[in-house]
Every structure is written in C-alpha cells, then in structure tokens.
Design brief:
The complex is a heterodimer.
Chain A lengths: L28 E2 L2 E4 L2 E4 L3 E2 L16 E4 H6 L1 H5 L6 E3 L18 E6 L6 H11 L6 E6 L3 H9 L4 E2 L7 H4 L20 H8 L1
Parallel strand pairs in A: 4-5, 5-6, 6-7, 7-8, 8-9
Antiparallel strand pairs in A: 1-4, 2-3, 2-9
Chain B lengths: L5 H22 L5 H9 L3 E3 L4 E5 L5 E3 H14 L3 E4 L5 E3 L7 H10 L16 E2 L14 H11 L14 E4 L13 E7 L5 E7 L11 E8 L3 H15 L10 H8 L1 H13 L10 H8 L15 H9 L1 H10 E3 L5 E6 L10 E3 H14 L3 E4 L5 E7 L3 H10 L14 E2 L14 H10 L3 H7 L4 E4 L13 E8 L2 E8 L11 E2 L4 E2 L3 H15 L6 H8 L2 H9 L3
Parallel strand pairs in B: 6-7, 7-8, 16-17, 17-18
Antiparallel strand pairs in B: 1-2, 2-5, 3-14, 4-5, 4-13, 8-9, 9-10, 11-12, 12-15, 14-15, 18-19, 19-20, 19-21
Helix pairs in contact in B: 1-2, 1-4, 3-12, 6-8, 7-8, 10-11, 14-16, 16-17, 16-18
The chains are: A alpha/beta, B alpha+beta.
Chain lengths: ~200, ~550
C-alpha cells in the first residue's frame, strides 16, 4: 500500500502539501474565553480555517492564528500585519516544518478535530523538548476537561474549549494528579530517577 | 511480589477519584455518554450486550491471597458471584453497575490493584510467563522488567490516545509461554556474548483480523535502554500509525507498510534524541526492582516424595492430576500446580467467589500466598512442596478446581463470544461445551495429549484462534452461526499461524470436526508426536479430507 498517511520527508514541499483536509479545522474557530496557564482569560483570537483559496490578503484583522501552509507560503505578508504570530499545526502536518521559524512565532495552535486522535500530543512534546519552543502552545477544537491534564504534561499551556463546556469546572483537571511515573514535556521526572535519588 | 510505594498508591487513588468525578459528571448530565466512553474504557469499563463489563488488571498475572479475596468479595458484592479470567491474565466482571464502579476501583486500590488501561487505544496490561521465577527453563526472571514497563506505561500522557490498543509481553525462558511474537512489542530477556542482560525486541506481531508474526527490530537492546527504546517505538507509531480505519490501525500494519528496515531506521532516529535522557535506567533500578521478586523462603528439600509416589499408584484421579496439572519446578522438592478453570460445563476461565476464596486460602497455606493467572485462562500455584501435593489436590478437588485437563483439548482458550460480547458473530461458550462433551473419557484425552484448542467468537480473535493447534473462529453466515477451523497454529517459539481447513462448519458439527481431526492425528502419529508435530509432517490434507468427507 502507499504510505499515504506516513508523512515521508520528501513530501514536505509546499506543492505536495494538501490543503483543507478533514484532519484540520473546517471553519474558523473563535471562543470568548480561554484557559491560559491554568486561569480563565478573555479571548479574541480567530483561528482561521484553511481553504484552497486562502491568501494573506483574506485574513481578518485582529488576533488570528493561521494554517501552517499559509504561513509557509506567505510569511512576510503575515509578519507585516504587525500582530502576534500564531500558526496551526494539524494532526496530518509536522512540527518539523516550523522549526526554522520558531523565533518568529509567538503561539502554536494544535487543532483537535477529534480528541481521540493523539498525534498532537507528540507534536507538542517535540516542540517543547526537542525544538525548544518557549511560546504558547494552545489546544483548540474537540478539547475538554478530561484532556487538559495530559495535554499540559506534553507541553500545552493554553486551551480553548467548546462553548458547551464549563471552564470553572474544567480547571479541576489541573489538580487531579500529584504524582507521575514518567518524564514528558513538563517538570515530571522518571519515577526510577526519583527512587534512585532516595536510595 | 511488587509492593506499592507512596507514589504508586497516590497515583492509583487519584485515578479512582478522577473516575468517580467523571462518573458523577456523567450522571449529572455534564459529561455525555459519548465523551465518557473512551474515559471509562481506559478504566476497564466496557458496555456489553446486557450490561457493563469491568476488566481488572493483573499485571503479568501475579496476585496475592489478599487480592484474590478482594476479587471474590467484588464478585459477591457487585456482580453475580463469579469472575472470568481472560487471555491477557486479567479478570472480568460481567454485571457491575456504572454507579458502583468507582467504589469497586476504590476497594481494588486498597489492595494495590486497578483497572487502568485494560481497554482503550493505549498501552495495555503487560503480560508475561505464568511460570516466571520458578520455571526450570528460565534464563532471566522477567517480572522486574514487566513492573518497570508497567510503571512507565501507566498514564503515559503522550501515548494515551494511540491509533489502536498496544500490547507488550515479556518472557525470560527458553520456551516462550507469553507468545511474545504475537504482541505489538514482544520482549525476550536475553544475555549477549559479554553476559550483559538485554532484550531481543520484536515489533508488529498480533492476532486480530490480520494475524502477523512479530519481526525482530533489535537483536540485542541493553536493558538500561528499554524504556527509551519503547518510547521511540510508541512515538513513531503514534505519529505514523493509520487512524482512518480501525482494522488497519495496529502497529503491525504500519510495520508491514513501511517494511521492518525503514521502520527500524525511524525508531533509531527517534531514539537518538532521548537515548541518554531521563528514561535511561541504571543497574540500581533493576536491583531495586528485583528485590521485590526474591525467591520465596524455600526449604532445603529433595525431589521425590514417597507418600506422593504411593498415592499416585493408589489413586488414578490423583495420578492423572499430577501428570497433567503439575509441572516441574527449578527448586528441588517443589512443583508448580496448575488450577484448571476448564471444568466441564463451565465457561472457560470462569471462577466463582467461593472458589476464589478457596484458592486464596490454599495459596496461603501451601504456596507462599501467591497465585498467578495464565493467558490460557487458568491459575497457577507456583511454589508447592511436593509433599503437600495430595492435600492441595484434595482441597482443589473439593472446589471442582482439579479437573486433570491442563494442556488437553478440553483446556481450551475461549472468548466470551455471543453470550456476552457485542462484537461477536457466534457463540463460543456453547461450542466449548460441545467439545467437552465429545471428550468425557479422560484416558482418551490423555492419549491424545497436548492440544491447544483456541476459539474466538469473531475475527477480532480474543480467543487467539490463529495460534491454536486447532483454531475455531465463529463467523456469521446470513444470520446463522458458523465456524471456521484452522490447524497447526503455534504461539510459542516456532510461531506459526494455523492453516485454514476448508469452508466454515455448521454449529452442531464443530465437535465432530474436532473429533475427526484428532482421529486422523491418532492414526497418523509417529513415536511421541503431538498433534502439532504430526500436522507439520503430513500437512493439512489428511485432516481436511476427513472433516469434509461426510459433506462431499
């Protein structure tokens, strides 16, 4: 079979990159509130969905996040907006494509079409531990209370939940576990290293 | 066995509190059934045909008497007085109420047990050799490694939403009783030429709809790298495994699509980033863990007990039990006792609350208070003094737990099938009963010898039918239950998938077909050949001819 879903490195040219796949957000996402660093804050960011025709000229004013393809195609135009720069990485895209631009990027947005697709967890982990990204990593889309704990562990520090979710309740997610077994992108340390230090 | 420290206790208790909160939110209408579903699965809770089913984890099959009593108590208080041991060495309850499950998990946590990751698309219970630590053919005790992997994989934040479930098995003996070549990751603990301990690592094995024998990805992985290397395999799988089709989502499909060489390159590239990081283990970590699995306080005894020898001559039932259900031990004067959960007319793997209590008692009295569960859905008392065998047999026999059929065609592996499972096409428990009724003569059973009969009610293969010496698969034909037979499968070191015998067989003819296969074997066998050996020599044709003779 063709490795359609295994993203071979040779396919990383802009031309080969599909646009507007079912793995990315289908329409703009805008939430009134977000959870950032475990606090509820007002939010005005518009996450712009990718379309075949989308260009930098079409972007709305104000705070936005842009699809990775648009960023790669029109970096200069996006930088010229003089706003914070936020780039989405879909589950079928790779953080490697953004590595050379991380200094320009303030926020990376991980859109979840379905929360059971866990690829973005590895993306976040790599962005923090391997590529040293220090800016905000924000999970949006199908992200609810019960995903916040592990997303935090792999390096996400901001979340936009669907409108139906109660954000006050969801803050409990950060208090559920006081111990961990394994290292990830947070301050968690391997249980074996910790026991070794005691012995 | 392993004992929780404060970290383990905290994690398991906090996990129960988390699930209690999730169930409460669901019952209050704050969490939809659809959103609860993957959360409850990762706590072992399924929705089946009639009710919920709770699968409790028994890491690498090890339980103590206290835990066994708790399992009995749960069966009595929250279920219908029985439990079902599974092919992943776990136990399932078929009738718990959703609102009770947090309480059940709390009671389990009190005895250092849980149901974490016994279901869902995450890393499942680590399984191993039921004779770990006591087998005569053991090279290295796999249990400390199992426990290290269990802890690393528990609530792993990055690998909690994988494309599909992920199973790891570990063996440390010459004879592979853990079927490591049929796991997503299979680990064989080995020495290299320098006598260092490490692992031969298999990847991409599995049963299910597309049975595949695992491929060697690393011939020798030093043991200190086991976690960083598994982490690398999981990351490659999480990022590249298919999610568009659940039947193509297991790692075996990815490994086959990429080819083992390219897959290995990807894993090695990933591994380089973290090889020497926090996951690297030290010798002291292994020593600390191994200290939890010391040899029990064996007495200085010798093999051969006169009274037992005398009773074997006097009592043919005891003798048959001794021959079939006990196994030699690496310690002189001791034997391994298998407890058969394949009593005639009982669903394979089922055990009542009273039987569980009795097993706990017998284990306490005669086997250092420990019991193991096996992937063949039986239990094991690993350390019984040979001089106690008669008493142990009597005690087990009084509970109908001494059926002398271990390894025989009656000792079949069987999934719950259509009687309980919403996935099944066909019943498996009734077929087990039908086959049992064909072979009521134990002398005939013993003459036939070792036959691993494995049966699944659908192609998801929970009953491992592909690797049965005789495999039985339930299929649906226009709303009727039919059965596809295979012969010659093998889950051990010479891993093989069974050969398809021919067209599916009607429900009432399965017992006859099994009987035909065994007739052919008895006619054609040479010397000490088992069914599997005869099959390998003569091929599938003679079996096929006999089974389909009447219908032709």
């Amino acid at each position: 079979m063709a490795l359609s879903n295994t993203k071979a490195k040779a396919d990383r040219s802009k031309k080969a990159r599909p646009k507007a796949t079912p793995s990315r957000i289908q329409s703009n996402i805008e939430s009134n509130q977000a959870i950032v660093n475990q606090a509820i804050v007002a939010n005005t960011i518009i996450h712009v969905a990718e379309t075949e025709e989308l260009t930098a000229a079409d972007l709305p004013t104000g705070e936005i996040s842009v699809p990775l393809n648009l960023w790669l195609a029109e970096k200069d135009a996006i930088k010229a907006r003089n706003a914070k720069i936020a780039v989405q990485i879909g589950v079928d895209e790779e953080p490697e494509d953004l590595v050379n631009d991380l200094a320009d990027v303030d926020m990376i947005v991980l859109p979840f079409v379905s929360h059971v697709d866990g690829q973005s967890y590895s993306h976040s982990y790599k962005l923090r531990t391997r590529f040293g990204f220090k800016g905000e990593i924000r999970a949006i889309g199908d992200v609810k209370f019960d995903q916040l704990g592990f997303l935090t562990r792999v390096g996400c520090n901001a979340f936009e939940l669907p409108e139906t979710e109660n954000l006050e309740t969801a803050l409990r997610a950060f208090q559920e576990f006081s111990e961990v077994y394994q290292p990830s992108a947070d301050s968690g340390v391997s249980i074996f290293s910790r026991r070794r230090a005691v012995h | 066995m392993y004992q929780y420290d404060s970290v383990d206790k905290t994690i398991v208790k906090e996990r129960v509190a988390q699930f209690r909160d999730q169930v409460n939110r669901h019952l209050n209408g704050e969490l939809t059934a659809a959103d609860l579903q993957p959360l409850r699965l990762r706590n072992g809770l399924y929705m089946q045909i009639h009710a919920h089913m709770l699968r409790v984890s028994i890491p690498y099959g090890l339980i103590n008497s206290t835990q066994m009593r708790t399992l009995a108590h749960i069966a009595r208080k929250y279920d219908k007085g029985y439990g079902h041991f599974t092919t992943r060495q776990n136990i399932q309850y078929n009738w718990p109420e959703l609102a009770d499950v947090p309480d059940i998990l709390d009671e389990l946590a009190d005895v250092e047990m849980h149901a974490i990751q016994t279901s869902g698309n995450c890393i499942r219970n680590i399984s191993s050799d039921q004779y770990a630590g006591v087998a005569k053919d053991e090279i290295i005790d796999p249990r400390p490694y199992c426990e290290i992997i269990r802890q690393w994989s528990t609530l792993h934040p990055e690998f909690y939403w994988l494309p599909r479930k992920f199973k790891i098995a570990v063996t440390g003996a010459t004879e592979d009783r853990a079927a490591v070549q049929f796991h997503d990751i299979g680990l064989e603990v080995v020495h290299n030429n320098a006598n260092d301990i490490g692992f031969r690592v298999y990847v991409g094995g599995g049963l299910g709809r597309t049975p595949v024998i695992g491929k060697v990805i690393k011939e020798f992985l030093p043991r200190e790298d086991i976690l960083s290397y598994c982490d690398a395999i999981l990351r490659v799988y999480n990022l590249h495994g298919r999610r568009d089709n659940k039947y193509k989502a297991r790692i075996k499909i990815l490994v086959n699509a990429m080819g083992i060489d390219r897959f290995r390159e990807e894993v090695d590239a990933e591994w380089q980033f973290q090889k020497d990081g926090d996951l690297k283990l030290h010798d002291t970590d292994f020593d600390t863990m191994a200290a939890f699995f010391p040899p029990p306080a064996y007495e200085d005894l010798s093999d051969g007990d006169e009274r037992i020898a005398k009773w074997r001559n006097l009592d043919s039932r005891f003798n048959a039990w001794y021959d079939n259900n006990t196994v030699e031990h690496k310690q002189a004067g001791y034997r391994i006792v298998n407890i058969s959960l394949k009593e005639h007319a009982v669903a394979p793997g089922d055990i009542t609350d009273d039987q569980m209590d009795a097993v706990a008692e017998i284990a306490e009295q005669y086997s250092f208070g420990e019991v193991r569960s096996t992937h063949e859905q039986n239990l094991v008392l690993a350390d019984v003094r040979q001089s106690d065998l008669l008493e142990v047999w009597k005690a087990l026999d009084a509970q109908n737990l001494a059926t002398a059929n271990i390894g025989s065609v009656n000792d079949m592996i069987c999934c719950p099938g259509l009687d309980f499972c919403s996935l099944a096409n066909a019943s498996s428990i009734s077929i087990a009963k039908q086959i049992n009724e064909k072979f009521t003569d134990f002398d005939e059973l013993y003459d036939i010898g070792e036959v691993k009969l494995k049966m699944s009610g659908c192609m998801n293969a929970c009953g491992h039918h592909h690797v049965g010496h005789i495999g039985v698969l339930g299929v649906d034909k226009k709303g009727e239950e039919w059965y596809q037979l295979t012969v010659g499968g093998d889950a051990s070191n010479n891993a093989e998938l069974g050969a398809r015998l021919g067209p599916a067989i009607a429900k009432d003819k399965v017992g006859d077909a099994v009987s035909d296969i065994l007739h052919v074997y008895r006619e054609q066998r040479e010397d000490e050949e088992r069914l599997l050996d005869t099959f390998r020599r003569v091929g599938v044709d003679p079996f096929k001819e006999r089974v389909y003779a009447e219908t032709n």
